[in-house]
Design brief:
The protein is α+β, with helices and mostly antiparallel strands. It has 3 helices and 11 strands, in the order αβββββαββββββα. It has helices at about 1-20, 80, 160-165; strands at about 25-30, 35-40, 45-50, 60-70, 70-75, 95-100, 105-110, 110-120, 125, 140-145, 155-160. It has a 6-stranded mixed sheet. The chain has a 5-stranded mixed sheet with strand order 3-6-7-5-4.
């Protein structure tokens, strides 16, 4: 049974990686010092952070639930899930409300930056990592130019398959149909 699950995970990951290489629009956000990008089509809305109602025995990265216009939405702190050094709540902290496999989920991030359109030429494959590091949700690295002319610089944007991350078994949020 594990081989089937592993094969499905690999197939989903490769499909997401192929979709990312086609380019598209990405919502960019910050987690600590790093900038990440997710497919804009997964984003339902962006809200200011409000303290969720805690759920007993939930993992530390699941902050609780909020009532969003009659829908109970689980809130995941991506900073804690992805191992950021600290997770401080301030006026820039926001919740990105996502629609993942027909389920609404909130993701807490340090701040939202921009919506960027990346051409496939500016997206490089995710680096191969050892099996000790779970980089399975990184679909690529985008390069974004800052400024123009001689003083232009580039910054890296880590592109994530947010759907695969939120639907992963360790999150326990979304049932994977077999």
């Amino acid at each position: 049974m594990d081989m089937i699950t592993d094969a499905q995970h690999v197939a989903q990951h490769e499909a997401a990686r192929a979709a990312t290489h086609a380019g598209g629009e990405f919502l960019t956000f910050r987690l600590g010092d790093e900038e990440y990008g997710i497919d804009i089509l997964r984003v339902q809305e962006i809200r200011s952070y409000e303290q969720p109602t805690r759920i007993a025995n939930a993992p530390a990265f699941i902050k609780g639930v909020v009532n969003l216009r009659g829908v109970i939405v689980p809130i995941v702190d991506l900073r804690m899930k992805l191992g950021c050094a600290s997770a401080e709540y301030n006026t820039f902290t926001v919740v990105i409300v996502l629609n993942v496999k027909g389920r609404v989920v909130g993701a807490v991030v340090d701040s939202v930056s921009d919506v960027l359109e990346l051409a496939s030429a500016s997206i490089k494959p995710a680096p191969e990592m050892s099996s000790a590091i779970d980089a399975g949700y990184i679909t690529g690295i985008g390069t974004v130019k800052n400024g123009s002319g001689d003083d232009a610089s580039e910054r890296m944007l880590i592109l994530m398959d947010i759907e695969a991350l939120m639907a992963s078994a360790d999150m326990g949020l979304i049932e994977n149909a077999v």
